[in-house]
Amino acid sequence: MHSFTLFFVAMLALSVGLRFWLSYRQISHIRAHRSSVPVAFEDTISLDDHQKAADYTVAKTRFSRLPMFFDAGLLLIWTLGGGLEWLDQTITTYELNPIMTGITVMLAFMLISSLLELPFSVYSTFVIEERFGFNRTTVKTFITDIIKGAALALILGVPILWVILWLMEQAGEYWWVYAWAVWTGFSLFIMWIYPTLIAPIFNKFEPLEEGATLDRIHQLLQRCGFSSNGIFVIDGSKRSSHGNAYFSGFGRNKRIVFFDTLLKMLNDDELEAVLAHELGHFKKKHIVKSMLISIAMTFVALAILAWLMKNEWFYTALGISTPSTYMALLLFALILPVFTFVLHPLISLFSRKNEFEADAFAANQTRAEYLVQALVGLYKENASTLTPDPLYSAFYDSHPPAPVRIAHLNAQT
After folding, report:
1. Are 283 and 354 in contact (CB under 8 A)?
2. Residue 109 domain boundaries
3. Which has fewest Cβ within 10 Å: 101, 140, 247, 390?
4. How far is Cα 281 from Cα 355, in angstroms, rounded to an integer?
5. Which residues touch 266 (CB under 8 Å, ≥6 apart)?
6. Contact, 92 vs 101, CB < 8 A?
7. Strands (E), 263-348
8. Is 49 a catalytic residue?
9. Pairwise CA distance, residues 235 & 183, whole Å
């Protein structure tokens, strides 16, 4: 057995073992604190709401173990079990050109994987979310979303995949630099068209109606020096009762979006504070920084791929007998998460730093107590646990734990 095969299996076992241990810690920690509301929330969160959040989080965490083990087993079947080898040999018999063969192999792989993983999505939506009163997705909407997503993936994914594979085949030793430039441009293009062309495929967007709320938002935008291409309300209640707010796009194509569920949860003071937080990400250039980090990581990943695909052992160690550019790309995409999971705390640390800065910006633009009230309301309505395990949270949560975040804001009042 090749040494890289052993390394891959060891890293996969480490990743799965670590994730299972973290889920065990999360469940144990939440159950240990289920009987009482944390002191900082005693006046704002009832015991019933606290226990609902605990039970909801435990249910989701416990269920997450099933797809975790399933995905690990499926990865072994695709690689060492000969699944990709069989798929490649089957499609190669059609004698397509190398690029079309690669695209067909990848599309077939994605179709099979999606069908195999579909039951987990169904259970999560129609059992867990339904049990705790959050699901509003109908079977029709669920199926329609799948069809729309698949069509969008074909329309946008196939052309960029063709370009990348063509570069890998024809652009010489430094194909990865050209591929990186193309991928970066494509990603920016998707971000630019998302608010006006992609998001409306799945949801309805209505301009926020005239009134006091809109006036306050315009005043806040003026103070922050933020220009947008409109302020919209999305019909998030069509799928879930969870609430959220965000802005998307860049340049002149930015949109501010509120979930209709959020507008029902918060008053104008709280809504303004939530928007000020989102604007804080813009003013502190968090989005730009995240984009630059992502672009840099893609550059490094493609450089590694360019080196790996030159080595025959990369293919044979992962169950592939015939090297090809498309198989190198597919194998790399499959195994990369196995080797990068241990880096999640660093990503979370960076994200949490940004959240603290955005909170501070919101506290300066409105009042810290309004953002605290809004966050507590969201924790309650979304059944977010107030007592996550610190280590689990360090791996999985992009936002600071509720007690830490609220204490940070209270210190600024």
Report:
1. no
2. 1-135+310-413
3. 140
4. 8
5. 243, 274, 374, 377, 378
6. yes
7. none
8. no
9. 31
Domain count, the chain: 1
Structure-token match 């979006």, residue found: 257
Look at residue 362 and tell me if it is in a domain. Answer: yes
Degrees (nearest 5) of the Cα angle 126, 128, 131?
Answer: 90
Spot the catalytic one: 88, 359, 381, 389. 359
The C-alpha atoms of residue 248 and residue 364 are separated, in whole angstroms, by 23
- Which phi and psi angles does 240 have, rounded to 5°? -155, 160
Q: Is position 210 within any domain?
A: no
CA distance 408 to 413: 10
Q: Which of 278, 355, 381, 389 is catalytic?
A: 278
Judge whether 293 lies within some domain.
no
Residue 232 pairs with which residues in a beta bridge? 207, 257
User: Are 69 and 23 contacting, i.e. CB atoms less than 8 angstroms apart?
Assistant: no
Strand, coil or helix: 217: helix
Instruction: Return phi, psi of residue 270, to 5°.
Output: -70, -40
- In the annotation, is 117 catalytic? no
In terms of Cβ atoms closer than 10 Å to its own Cβ (0-12, 13-18, 19+), residue 227 is exposed
Question: In this structure, is residue 75 part of a structural domain?
Answer: yes
Q: What is the DSSP string of 140-184?
A: HHHHHHHHHHHHHIIIIIHHHHHHHHHHHHHS-TTHHHHHHHHHH
Model confidence over 346-355: pLDDT tens digits?
999 999 999 9
Rounded distance, CA 98 to CA 382, Å? Answer: 48
Nearest Cα neighbor of 105 from 328, 284, 290 is 328
Q: Is the pLDDT of residue 329 over 90?
A: yes
Q: Are 386 and 403 in contact (CB under 8 A)?
A: yes
Sign of the torsion formed by the C-alpha atoms of 341, 319, 85 and 20: negative
Tens of pLDDT along 122-132? 999 999 999 99
Kindly give the pairing relationship between strand 255-259 and strand 245-248. antiparallel
| Integer Cα distance of 196 and 264 in angstroms | 25
Amino acid at 145: D
